[in-house]
Amino acid sequence: MRQRSHAHPRLTREWQGETAFLIAGGPSVLGQNLEALRGRRVVVVNSSVYVAPWADVLFSGDERWEINHRSTVKAFKGRVLSATWGSVPYQCRYIEFLRKPKPGEVPAGLSSDPSEVFFKNTSVRGAINVLCHLGVSRIVTLGLDGGPDATGKTHHHAPHKWGRNPDGWRLQRDELEGVAVAIKDRGVELLNASPGSKLSFWPIVELKDVI
Question: Whole-angstrom Cα distance, residue 139 to residue 111?
């Protein structure tokens, strides 16, 4: 079991200038060749750990998910990052907890403090903030679909037990659109390798063209 201190970690720019691949939960992931990403810098968000258990980093911004998937989180071989606005939970020594603002106090954009991330309605924003702290110059997202596919499928994994907020897609789109400005100001390029994505503020690309 990985041990950590009970202080918030400070991320370092260990991936300076590199390209990282961020796997979110959208159904378009099912059509991707994820094996092509082995050996590259990969971050998985929540249940995307099941399609790429060999990723470098697992990021989860949802305590409910962490509790429901505790055995998977504990078994993950890479680095497990999450965030909390309170004190660091002592019962989760296998997770490194960054700081985050309280839900009603989340600023716009991304945090520049390497021990902190900003997000509210989507853990993808927190994962993007993590990658900026790690110093990447380009992020390629997969499964960032912004809504269900043509068949009505909402995720590439099993549905969460707590269901969906009926306004969740809009809230997530609004939050990520704000990130689009902040990440550009940092000089980081973001490309969306999610066929059929409803998010229009990042270029849609084919995964094979950016590997």
Answer: 17
